[in-house]
Design brief:
By secondary structure, the chain is an alpha+beta fold. The protein has a domain at 3-40. The chain is 45% helix and 20% strand. It has four helices and three strands, in the order E-H-H-E-E-H-H. A hairpin with a 2-residue loop joins strand 2 (26-31) and strand 3 (34-40). The longest helix has 12 residues, at 69-80.
Length: 83
C-alpha cells in the first residue's frame, strides 16, 4: 500500500517525501484530510524504433508485371507502323 503525506510535508520536507517515492514507488498526497493527488516515480518509456521501409518492394507492388520479350517485340512492331 502506498504511503501518504500532506501537501505541507511535500513543501517543507521534500527530501523525506522523495525518499518515500523512491522506496515505495508512489505516495498519496492529502489536502484537508482527503487524498487528492498521487505522486509516482517516473519511468521513461523506451524509444520506439520504426521498422525499416522497403521502398523498392513497395514500388514494385504498385507496378504491373513486366511484359515478355515476345509481347515487347509485337508492341514495337505495332508502333512502327508502315515505314
Amino acid at each position: 500500500m502506498p504511503r501518504t503525506a500532506t501537501i505541507r510535508d511535500l513543501r517543507n520536507r521534500f527530501p523525506t517525501v522523495r525518499k518515500l517515492v523512491e522506496t515505495d514507488g508512489e505516495v498519496l498526497l492529502s489536502e484537508g484530510g482527503k487524498i487528492r493527488y498521487r505522486l509516482a516515480l517516473h519511468t521513461p518509456v523506451a524509444a520506439r524504433v520504426a521498422p525499416a521501409v522497403d521502398y523498392w518492394a513497395r514500388l514494385t507492388s504498385y507496378q504491373p508485371t513486366a511484359i515478355s520479350a515476345r509481347q515487347a517485340q509485337s508492341l514495337h512492331e505495332e508502333n512502327r507502323g508502315d515505314r
